[in-house]
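Handout, section B. The chain below has 499 residues.
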Amino acid sequence: MKILFIYPNSGSQTGFNYGVAQMAAHLEQAGHETVFLHLCEDIEPLPNKEQFLQRVGDLKPDIIGFSVVTNQWPLTAEVAGWCRDELNIPLVCGGVHATVAGRQVLETGLFDYIMVGECEDAVVDFLDRLAEGKSVRDVANLGMVLDGKIVINPVRPLPQLNEFPPKNYEIFDFQKIIDAKDGWVGLMASRGCPYNCTYCFNHVMVKQYCHDLQCSVGQLKYIRHHTVEQVIDEIKYLEKNYKNIKMYIFDDDLFIFNKKFVMEFCRQYKKISSMPFVVNGHVGLFDEERARALADANCYMVKFGVESGSEKIRTQIMHRKMSNRMIADAIAMVHQYFMQSSCFIMFGLPHETIDDVMDTVKLMSQTLPSRFRWTYFYPFPGTEAHRMSVEGGFVDKDKIGSLMNFTDSSCLDFGKEQNLFLEKIGRLLPWFVNAYSNLEVASFYREKIEELMAMDQDKWQSCSPSLHDLDKKYSARFAEEGKKHYAVKYNPFMGVMSS
């Protein structure tokens, strides 16, 4: 059979779909044919209905599968509606959204099937049966409507990454993705995370798998790795077949978790590539031995999920049990080994106050990471943080259905004063961090944020569009004067230290 994978990725950062790349490899190995459409403005202009249907008609798929995250659901629903109107082939919805909100997806009537969890083996079983005209009723990980009732089958055991064939890059215009991401190429060496953060879908996955497989978290073995050899071979393949690669970024939830893997990878990597790379770390696991090995292998940056500078919010709302001291020490150790540090931070969490947000600002100003990237919290259905948001009465039902990313606005409602404050800090967080730091520019930025904070909604709306240009002007001035400072750089939700 021929399956067309569609990846809605509009209005947000250009992504590479690891799951589709891996499923395509499994399907091709099993004798099926795969093709791909990337709905992303950075790759090519979004098609209208006529253009889309013409493209699908040219590809002549037997079945269409969508890989969907929740904020891309509005676009997914529109495109699936086009397919429903004009095409007489089965539609399948997979990805995170189908896993956490599968029942709601099927209730729309837009899709014939959903696939939940990790589906590399399930999708082969599913297409094999369709091709042979057999029933798919009992295919694990599959959901459908039978006799007017929604049926979602239990999941099968998690696949083992060390048994996977190499990803299929050929179905993508991968060179165009590399160029759109300015040479940054994503990799994944592992799946899973040992932590239980309330806002992340990992705990939803673990709960479902443990329930369906009747096993404990320990028995599930959620964290799995590719072999070091597999990862090294993938890098060799990329460097042989593509150009303009400038940086590898490991998108594993927690690359540094398995110390033995990290040490062996670093030993092997420096034998075959001089390309710098980026990893995700955790302040509770980042030690000197890991830091030394990563730096020696040309690791450029270690990223930490700080999320909030308020220990109360981290502990009570996010279930992230780490202290500000641990965060400061981890950032300092990265710098000690001449790597760059990066912090993920999040605003607009349920029960968060303005003072809590300012604690995040102050933590960044005290620890001075090389850069920080911020988003607004988004309550993914099925997560504990979604429950907190709904029960606390914070969810703005109009906004949550229309947001396509996590960086433009919050979909929670905290009242006019705090909502306006979140808009301001989400626009110009580097100014706030500069203002509360011990940097030479602090007094200048303190005056600027006092002006911002005094603005009412109308004044803010009128001047907000020009503020990034003003940020560039100030940054150029201070760079010429040799004064360290943070400025908005690379994208509208990243603050980067000038040095």
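Note. The first helix runs from residue 18 to 29. Compare this with the example in section A.
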